[in-house]
């Protein structure tokens, strides 16, 4: 690999971060740090009540990834941790009525790659015993399942390794062949999106589109649709402007209703 290719791969991989939600074992955090460092990802984020024991994390991180343990970010709320990111790829082994069909990591990398130049990308993983819950997956632009035979559950560190490798391989292959896809524009971050989704939900409830018992289903579909498109900050402001106008008109008909922020 020539130096120019190596520098470009390093720059693009530097846009990605590993986000671990409530990891149960400090050693898995250490292993995830080691994988991230090997693949050129320089940001490790934990969402949990307390930071795991540092020495246990360092045992498997080894000296080469110790810097990720020393600089890891800690948040108590997932929304806060994901606020600066423009694109989130979540992992899930579970399928069910409320979960849509998802693709393998390799199939989805073609959609992730264009985001890397102008957007921060988060690879999101849930705890070892249950994975990501539906309320956590709602932050994701994409959801992926790692293909397995029969036994679907993977160790957290293994799942991190597979996704990091697929991302690194896709970046390296595209850069080496000078066939990198056209870069996506800078997206609105998750903080902007969550504010917009709150406004959209309030508006749809006000006009009667959302009905009690069905609101989660419809909002999940709306989140997936708008999240997959990738909205810029200006477009988010336009949607929120439309919501404000609809809510304002409704208040004119019913003056006693509260005012939206």
Q: What Rg is obtained from the alpha carbons, in whole angstroms?
A: 20 Å
Written as H for each helix and E for each strand, in order along the chain, the element string is: HEHEHHEHEHEHEHHHH
CATH architecture of the largest domain: 3-Layer(aba) Sandwich
Distance between the termini: 53 Å
Strand order of the largest sheet: 3-2-1-5-4-6
Share of helical residues: 40-55%
The unreliable regions are none
What's the CATH first level of the largest domain? Alpha Beta
How is this structure best described in words?
- The structure is a single chain.
- This protein is globular.
- Strand 4 (87-91), helix 6 and strand 5 (121-125) form a beta-alpha-beta unit.
- It has a six-stranded parallel sheet.
- Helices cover 49% and strands 10% of the residues.
- The protein has eleven helices and six strands.
- It has helices at residues 3-13, 26-38, 54-61, 66-70, 78-82, 105-112, 134-137, 156-176, 190-206, 215-229, 233-253; strands at 16-21, 44-47, 73-75, 87-91, 121-125, 142-144.
- The protein starts with a helix and ends in an 8-residue tail after the last helix.
- The protein is α/β, with parallel strands linked by helices.
- The longest helix is centred in the middle third of the chain and has 21 residues, at 156-176.
- It has two domains: 3-176, Alpha/beta knot; 190-253, Helicase, Ruva Protein, domain 3, CATH 1.10.8.590.
């Amino acid at each position: 690999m020539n130096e120019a290719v190596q520098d470009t791969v390093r720059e693009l991989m530097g846009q990605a971060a590993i986000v671990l939600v409530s990891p149960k074992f400090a050693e898995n955090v250490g292993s995830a740090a080691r994988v991230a460092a090997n693949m050129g990802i320089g940001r490790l984020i934990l969402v949990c009540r307390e930071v795991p024991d540092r020495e246990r994390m360092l045992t498997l991180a080894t000296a080469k990834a110790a810097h990720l343990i020393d600089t890891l970010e800690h948040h108590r709320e997932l929304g806060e941790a994901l606020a600066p990111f423009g694109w989130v790829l979540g992992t899930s082994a579970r399928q069910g009525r409320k979960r849509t069909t998802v693709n393998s990591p390799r199939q989805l990398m073609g959609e992730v790659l264009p985001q890397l130049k102008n957007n921060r990308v988060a690879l999101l993983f849930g705890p070892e015993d249950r994975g990501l819950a539906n309320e956590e997956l709602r932050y994701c632009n994409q959801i992926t399942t790692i293909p397995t035979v029969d036994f679907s559950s993977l160790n957290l560190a293994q799942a991190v390794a597979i996704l990091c490798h697929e991302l690194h391989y896709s970046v390296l292959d595209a850069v080496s062949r000078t066939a990198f896809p056209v870069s996506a524009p800078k997206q609105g971050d998750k903080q902007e999106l969550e504010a917009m989704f709150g406004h959209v939900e309030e508006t749809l409830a006000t006009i009667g589109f959302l009905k009690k018992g069905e609101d989660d289903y419809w909002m999940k579909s709306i989140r997936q649709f708008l999240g997959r498109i990738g909205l810029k900050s200006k477009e988010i402001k336009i949607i929120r402007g439309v919501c404000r106008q609809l809510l304002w008109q409704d208040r004119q008909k019913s003056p006693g209703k509260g005012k939206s922020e």
